[in-house]
Amino acid sequence: MLTLEPAGQNRELAADIVRFTRRSARRYKRSRITWGDRFVDAYSWGLGIGVSLTIAASFILALRNELADRASTTGSIIGGQWLVLPEPVLWTSVTFAVLLVISNLARKLGPMTVSGAESTWWLILPVDRRPMVLPPFLRKVALTAAGSAIMYLPFSMVTAIDRVPVEHVFVALAFGGAGAIAVVLGAVQQLGLLGPRLGKATTTAAVLGCSLLPALSWSPWPTALVGLAAVGLLALVVPRSGRVRGEELVRGGAVAGHAGASLFMMDANEVLRALSGGRERVDGGRAARFYARRTHGPLRALIRADAVAFLRLNPPLMPPILWLAACIGMLLVEGGLPESVQLAVIVIAGCATASGLGTVARKTALVPELDAVLPLHPALVRTSRTLMPCLAMSVWMAVLSGLLVLLGAADPWLVLLGALAGVGMGAGTLRAATRTPPDWTAPPVETPFGPVPRAQVGSLLRGLDVTILATIPLLVALYLGYVPSIVLMVQAVFSAGIFLVVVLSRPKRT
């Protein structure tokens, strides 16, 4: 009893500190918000959510009917399938990919964190940390489970038409439990209960097993199994939640705060910087020989420096490979997806891959004064920044186009068309990296969805617009089933024009 009493007293003191802090914060917020403001906010949010849910429901029902009435591969961009993937394989792969994203975000954002103010005086106190970090952690687990279940319900309704409504509910609950497991496994790695490699392998295996259960959820047993697994992991983590290292709590809080503020300010570059900030592994030998060569002239030196930086920052190879697999997998699925959906997936994959290749451009855009002191014209500096993303995207698009040619989507000229499209898509990464912060002085525009910040949305789409524009001739060729010479020329003009516009245009100053 003597050894347990101090721990209990420390825990009670920590709980009192947490309650006092949060009570004071709520009192301060209530003093600055009137009931009229709350009513207006509730009315605006309710109206916007209601209209959005109505449109989303109509879209889901229309897509469900289109998938139900499709006839084999008559609407596909490929003429015939020499390899057919069963539909459950594709939907299980999508579920697995989403759960991997949830687990990766949980590992980067915490999930046990403290904010900047809390880390200033909470962590230095000689008290138990569990009352400080446990309630937010449980809240994150509950919100992730609820959000995952709500999002998976329409996905189940579209992809599994033969299920009854009760089975859709069971499937959604099973996916919600799988999302909670992914978050709790992130806490297991944060506590150091498993090594880094073993923790990643265990998380991947657990997520893979959970992704298979929604396909089997014709009864409540898989849902109950996922729920019991989530409860068991929580019982393992909750008693040990006070043992998380202080630096890990501060790191997770900094990343979560940075990403949350960037989302609130609608700054996509800052979101990507926040999520990539925890990846500290830098390869010093990948481009050592290339870096050691002598150069002649400042332009060649800058091009070599940008190439070395691109290679040393270790651009991850797995996401581009997974996006290639997604593009090919949705073409080979049994029954065939609608042609519009196939083209949309290709565009999304290209935009996501191009965004991941702009790490160097985003980092150099933070300090534009360094580029100004270089003994080169600003257009030449921007050209050097764009070369490696353009080359990488050309290779990726050429590989994707080659695979599409093997599947019979078009003639071999599609490979050249894809390589040219990659140049324009790679140039869009520099345009996105040098976008100006959103102008919050511009008034919003009233729409049926509520007020829409037009200026902020325009700033957010900067870079994405030219990336999508560069893919239009490629999409036309895929729709036609062959590559006309006029489409090839238009693609060359589009890519060259996008490259010149991005290189010659100067970013606006704030």
Structure report:
This protein has a two-stranded antiparallel sheet. By secondary structure, it is mostly helical. The chain has helices at 4-31, 35-69, 87-109, 116-121, 130-159, 165-191, 196-212, 220-237, 246-264, 268-276, 288-292, 298-312, 318-332, 339-356, 359-365, 368-372, 378-406, 413-433, 454-460, 464-480, 485-504; strands at residues 445-447, 450-452. The chain is globular and about 75 Å long. The chain has 21 helices and two strands. It folds into two domains: 4-32 and 70-263, no CATH class; 265-504, no CATH class.
SS class: mainly alpha
* Proportion in helices: over 70%
| Largest sheet report | 2 strands, antiparallel
Number of strands: 2
Order of helices and strands: HHHHHHHHHHHHHHHHHHEEHHH
| Count of folded domains | 2
Strand order of the largest sheet: 1-2
* Shape category: globular
Cα-to-Cα separation, first versus last residue:
64 Å
Protein name: ABC transporter permease
Pfam families: DUF6297
Keywords: Membrane, Transmembrane, Transmembrane helix
InterPro entries: DUF6297 (IPR046264)
